[in-house]
Protein backbone atom coordinates (compact mmCIF):
# COMPACT_ATOMS: atom_id res chain seq x y z
CA UNK A 1 0.00 0.00 0.00
CA UNK A 2 1.45 3.39 -0.98
CA UNK A 3 1.75 6.36 1.32
CA UNK A 4 -1.06 8.05 -0.61
CA UNK A 5 -3.34 5.05 -0.16
CA UNK A 6 -2.65 4.89 3.56
CA UNK A 7 -3.28 8.63 3.90
CA UNK A 8 -6.58 8.40 2.02
CA UNK A 9 -7.65 5.37 4.05
CA UNK A 10 -6.95 7.15 7.32
CA UNK A 11 -8.96 10.15 6.17
CA UNK A 12 -11.88 7.90 5.22
CA UNK A 13 -11.78 6.13 8.58
CA UNK A 14 -11.70 9.45 10.42
CA UNK A 15 -14.66 10.73 8.40
CA UNK A 16 -16.65 7.57 9.18
CA UNK A 17 -15.87 7.88 12.91
CA UNK A 18 -16.96 11.51 12.86
CA UNK A 19 -20.24 10.65 11.14
CA UNK A 20 -20.96 7.95 13.71
CA UNK A 21 -20.16 10.34 16.57
CA UNK A 22 -22.40 13.07 15.16
CA UNK A 23 -25.26 10.65 14.53
CA UNK A 24 -25.03 9.26 18.04
CA UNK A 25 -24.85 12.61 19.79
CA UNK A 26 -27.57 14.36 17.79
CA UNK A 27 -30.80 14.71 19.73
CA UNK A 28 -33.94 13.44 18.11
CA UNK A 29 -37.07 15.58 18.24
CA UNK A 30 -39.26 14.67 21.23
CA UNK A 31 -42.05 12.26 20.35
CA UNK A 32 -45.13 11.16 22.35
CA UNK A 33 -44.62 8.31 24.84
CA UNK A 34 -47.34 5.72 25.36
CA UNK A 35 -47.97 4.88 29.03
CA UNK A 36 -50.26 2.88 31.29
CA UNK A 37 -51.65 4.12 34.60
CA UNK A 38 -53.92 7.02 33.60
CA UNK A 39 -56.77 7.15 36.11
CA UNK A 40 -59.17 9.98 35.16
CA UNK A 41 -61.21 11.39 32.28
CA UNK A 42 -60.84 15.16 32.67
CA UNK A 43 -61.97 16.18 29.17
CA UNK A 44 -65.46 16.41 27.69
CA UNK A 45 -65.16 15.31 24.05
CA UNK A 46 -66.73 17.46 21.32
CA UNK A 47 -69.24 14.77 20.37
CA UNK A 48 -70.78 14.71 23.88
CA UNK A 49 -74.29 15.83 24.74
CA UNK A 50 -75.55 17.29 28.02
CA UNK A 51 -75.45 16.47 30.84
CA UNK A 52 -71.67 16.53 30.47
CA UNK A 53 -71.08 15.05 33.89
CA UNK A 54 -71.69 11.71 32.14
CA UNK A 55 -68.62 12.28 29.97
CA UNK A 56 -65.89 13.54 32.36
CA UNK A 57 -65.06 14.20 35.99
CA UNK A 58 -64.02 17.44 37.65
CA UNK A 59 -60.36 18.42 37.51
CA UNK A 60 -61.04 21.31 39.88
CA UNK A 61 -62.68 18.87 42.26
CA UNK A 62 -64.60 21.13 44.69
CA UNK A 63 -65.96 23.32 41.88
CA UNK A 64 -66.29 20.55 39.27
CA UNK A 65 -64.56 22.36 36.41
CA UNK A 66 -63.10 20.22 33.61
CA UNK A 67 -61.52 20.71 30.20
CA UNK A 68 -63.41 20.25 26.94
CA UNK A 69 -62.43 19.49 23.34
CA UNK A 70 -62.53 22.17 20.65
CA UNK A 71 -65.88 22.04 18.85
CA UNK A 72 -68.07 21.27 21.86
CA UNK A 73 -71.23 23.33 21.32
CA UNK A 74 -69.41 25.03 18.45
CA UNK A 75 -66.67 26.42 20.72
CA UNK A 76 -63.43 27.58 19.10
CA UNK A 77 -61.66 27.29 22.47
CA UNK A 78 -60.81 23.93 23.99
CA UNK A 79 -58.18 21.23 23.89
CA UNK A 80 -56.94 20.31 20.38
CA UNK A 81 -59.02 17.89 18.33
CA UNK A 82 -57.88 14.30 19.03
CA UNK A 83 -55.39 15.60 21.62
CA UNK A 84 -52.52 16.22 19.20
CA UNK A 85 -50.56 19.49 19.19
CA UNK A 86 -47.10 21.05 19.25
CA UNK A 87 -46.15 23.02 22.35
CA UNK A 88 -45.74 26.77 22.16
CA UNK A 89 -42.12 27.86 22.21
CA UNK A 90 -40.47 24.43 22.10
CA UNK A 91 -42.50 22.72 19.36
CA UNK A 92 -42.61 19.48 21.39
CA UNK A 93 -45.16 17.05 19.97
CA UNK A 94 -47.75 15.94 22.53
CA UNK A 95 -50.62 13.48 22.16
CA UNK A 96 -53.21 13.44 24.96
CA UNK A 97 -55.01 10.09 25.33
CA UNK A 98 -58.50 9.56 23.90
CA UNK A 99 -60.97 12.04 25.33
CA UNK A 100 -63.62 9.35 25.64
CA UNK A 101 -61.61 7.41 28.24
CA UNK A 102 -59.01 8.03 30.95
CA UNK A 103 -56.75 10.77 29.59
CA UNK A 104 -54.80 12.00 32.63
CA UNK A 105 -53.13 10.94 35.85
CA UNK A 106 -55.14 12.85 38.47
CA UNK A 107 -53.42 13.52 41.79
CA UNK A 108 -55.31 15.00 44.73
CA UNK A 109 -55.27 15.09 48.54
CA UNK A 110 -56.99 11.69 48.43
CA UNK A 111 -54.49 10.28 45.90
CA UNK A 112 -51.32 12.40 46.19
CA UNK A 113 -49.10 10.20 44.03
CA UNK A 114 -49.37 7.84 41.09
CA UNK A 115 -47.23 5.82 38.69
CA UNK A 116 -47.16 5.88 34.89
CA UNK A 117 -45.47 2.87 33.28
CA UNK A 118 -43.99 3.13 29.81
CA UNK A 119 -45.62 0.65 27.45
CA UNK A 120 -42.17 0.24 25.88
CA UNK A 121 -39.17 0.98 28.15
CA UNK A 122 -36.98 3.47 26.28
CA UNK A 123 -33.62 5.22 26.56
CA UNK A 124 -34.44 8.93 26.68
CA UNK A 125 -32.14 11.94 26.61
CA UNK A 126 -34.93 14.05 28.09
CA UNK A 127 -38.50 13.73 29.33
CA UNK A 128 -41.17 16.33 28.49
CA UNK A 129 -44.06 16.43 30.97
CA UNK A 130 -47.40 18.09 30.16
CA UNK A 131 -49.03 18.99 33.47
CA UNK A 132 -50.99 21.62 35.42
CA UNK A 133 -52.82 22.07 38.74
CA UNK A 134 -56.02 23.66 40.03
CA UNK A 135 -56.54 25.65 43.27
CA UNK A 136 -52.83 26.22 43.68
CA UNK A 137 -49.86 24.29 42.38
CA UNK A 138 -46.13 24.50 41.92
CA UNK A 139 -43.48 21.79 41.58
CA UNK A 140 -44.13 18.15 42.31
CA UNK A 141 -41.67 15.35 43.04
CA UNK A 142 -40.86 12.85 40.29
CA UNK A 143 -39.05 9.51 40.70
CA UNK A 144 -37.72 7.94 37.50
CA UNK A 145 -37.11 4.18 37.60
CA UNK A 146 -34.70 2.66 35.07
CA UNK A 147 -34.44 -0.89 33.73
CA UNK A 148 -31.56 -1.72 36.12
CA UNK A 149 -33.85 -0.83 39.08
CA UNK A 150 -31.89 2.35 39.82
CA UNK A 151 -33.87 5.54 40.38
CA UNK A 152 -33.45 9.26 39.80
CA UNK A 153 -35.19 11.84 41.98
CA UNK A 154 -36.16 15.09 40.26
CA UNK A 155 -39.22 17.33 39.92
CA UNK A 156 -41.68 18.79 37.39
CA UNK A 157 -43.74 21.97 37.24
CA UNK A 158 -47.53 22.02 37.50
CA UNK A 159 -48.55 25.62 38.23
CA UNK A 160 -52.17 26.68 38.68
CA UNK A 161 -54.04 26.50 35.37
CA UNK A 162 -54.64 30.26 35.62
CA UNK A 163 -50.96 31.18 35.66
CA UNK A 164 -49.07 31.99 32.45
CA UNK A 165 -45.61 31.74 34.03
CA UNK A 166 -42.23 30.32 32.96
CA UNK A 167 -39.10 29.46 34.88
CA UNK A 168 -37.10 26.61 36.39
CA UNK A 169 -37.88 24.13 39.15
CA UNK A 170 -35.76 23.40 42.21
CA UNK A 171 -33.89 20.79 40.11
CA UNK A 172 -33.33 23.39 37.33
CA UNK A 173 -35.85 21.82 34.97
CA UNK A 174 -37.17 24.49 32.60
CA UNK A 175 -40.92 24.93 32.25
CA UNK A 176 -43.25 27.17 30.23
CA UNK A 177 -46.85 27.25 28.97
CA UNK A 178 -47.35 24.62 26.28
CA UNK A 179 -50.84 25.70 25.25
CA UNK A 180 -53.11 28.48 26.53
CA UNK A 181 -56.66 29.79 26.33
CA UNK A 182 -58.30 26.38 26.53
CA UNK A 183 -61.53 27.26 28.34
CA UNK A 184 -63.30 25.05 30.85
CA UNK A 185 -66.73 23.58 31.58
CA UNK A 186 -68.56 23.27 34.91
CA UNK A 187 -70.04 19.82 35.18
CA UNK A 188 -72.67 20.77 37.77
CA UNK A 189 -74.61 22.96 35.31
CA UNK A 190 -72.81 22.53 31.93
CA UNK A 191 -71.65 26.16 31.92
CA UNK A 192 -68.82 26.80 29.43
CA UNK A 193 -66.30 29.47 30.50
CA UNK A 194 -63.76 30.86 27.99
CA UNK A 195 -61.70 33.54 29.79
CA UNK A 196 -59.04 35.21 27.65
CA UNK A 197 -55.77 33.26 27.77
CA UNK A 198 -56.89 30.69 30.33
CA UNK A 199 -56.66 27.98 31.45
CA UNK A 200 -53.26 26.58 30.44
CA UNK A 201 -51.15 23.42 30.29
CA UNK A 202 -47.40 23.48 31.04
CA UNK A 203 -44.38 21.65 29.64
CA UNK A 204 -41.40 20.75 31.84
CA UNK A 205 -38.19 19.52 30.20
CA UNK A 206 -36.24 17.03 32.36
CA UNK A 207 -32.76 15.71 31.38
CA UNK A 208 -32.34 11.96 31.96
CA UNK A 209 -29.59 9.34 32.03
CA UNK A 210 -29.73 8.28 28.39
CA UNK A 211 -27.58 5.18 28.96
CA UNK A 212 -30.51 3.43 30.71
CA UNK A 213 -34.06 2.62 29.64
CA UNK A 214 -36.85 4.36 31.55
CA UNK A 215 -39.42 1.88 32.90
CA UNK A 216 -41.77 3.96 35.05
CA UNK A 217 -42.40 7.41 36.50
CA UNK A 218 -43.84 8.16 39.95
CA UNK A 219 -45.45 11.61 40.22
CA UNK A 220 -46.42 13.41 43.42
CA UNK A 221 -49.01 16.18 43.58
CA UNK A 222 -47.70 19.72 43.15
CA UNK A 223 -48.59 21.84 46.17
CA UNK A 224 -47.14 25.14 47.40
CA UNK A 225 -49.72 26.11 50.02
CA UNK A 226 -50.60 22.57 51.11
CA UNK A 227 -54.16 23.13 49.94
CA UNK A 228 -56.52 20.21 50.41
CA UNK A 229 -58.29 21.37 47.24
CA UNK A 230 -55.24 21.37 44.96
CA UNK A 231 -55.38 18.79 42.16
CA UNK A 232 -52.58 18.03 39.69
CA UNK A 233 -53.05 16.45 36.29
CA UNK A 234 -50.37 14.76 34.15
CA UNK A 235 -51.87 14.91 30.67
CA UNK A 236 -49.13 13.62 28.35
CA UNK A 237 -45.46 12.68 28.07
CA UNK A 238 -42.95 13.03 25.26
CA UNK A 239 -39.26 12.23 25.10
CA UNK A 240 -36.07 12.46 23.07
CA UNK A 241 -35.39 8.84 22.17
CA UNK A 242 -31.74 7.76 21.98
CA UNK A 243 -30.87 6.26 18.54
CA UNK A 244 -30.82 2.47 18.42
CA UNK A 245 -27.31 0.88 18.58
CA UNK A 246 -28.15 -1.07 15.42
CA UNK A 247 -28.32 2.21 13.52
CA UNK A 248 -24.82 3.11 14.68
CA UNK A 249 -23.56 -0.34 13.70
CA UNK A 250 -24.95 0.01 10.19
CA UNK A 251 -23.17 3.34 9.81
CA UNK A 252 -19.95 1.74 10.98
CA UNK A 253 -20.28 -1.17 8.53
CA UNK A 254 -20.95 1.23 5.70
CA UNK A 255 -17.81 3.14 6.61
CA UNK A 256 -15.72 -0.03 6.74
CA UNK A 257 -17.06 -0.94 3.32
CA UNK A 258 -15.86 2.37 1.93
CA UNK A 259 -12.42 1.87 3.43
CA UNK A 260 -12.22 -1.67 2.05
CA UNK A 261 -13.32 -0.55 -1.40
CA UNK A 262 -10.59 2.13 -1.41
CA UNK A 263 -7.98 -0.41 -0.24
CA UNK A 264 -8.82 -2.88 -3.03
CA UNK A 265 -8.52 -0.34 -5.84
From TrEMBL:
InterPro entries: Ice-binding_C (IPR013424). It comes from the Bacteria. Residues 1-28 form the signal peptide. Keywords: Signal. Residues 242-265 form the Ice-binding protein C-terminal domain. The keyword Lyase does not apply. This is PEP-CTERM sorting domain-containing protein.
Amino acid sequence: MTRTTWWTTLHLAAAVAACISISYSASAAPIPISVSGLNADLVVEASSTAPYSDDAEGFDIPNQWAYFETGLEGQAAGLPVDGEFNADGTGTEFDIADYSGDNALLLSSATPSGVLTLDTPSQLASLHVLAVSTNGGGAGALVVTYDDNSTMITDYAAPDWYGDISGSTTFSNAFSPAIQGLGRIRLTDDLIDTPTGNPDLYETIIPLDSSKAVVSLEFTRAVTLNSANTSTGIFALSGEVVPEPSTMALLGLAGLGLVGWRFRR
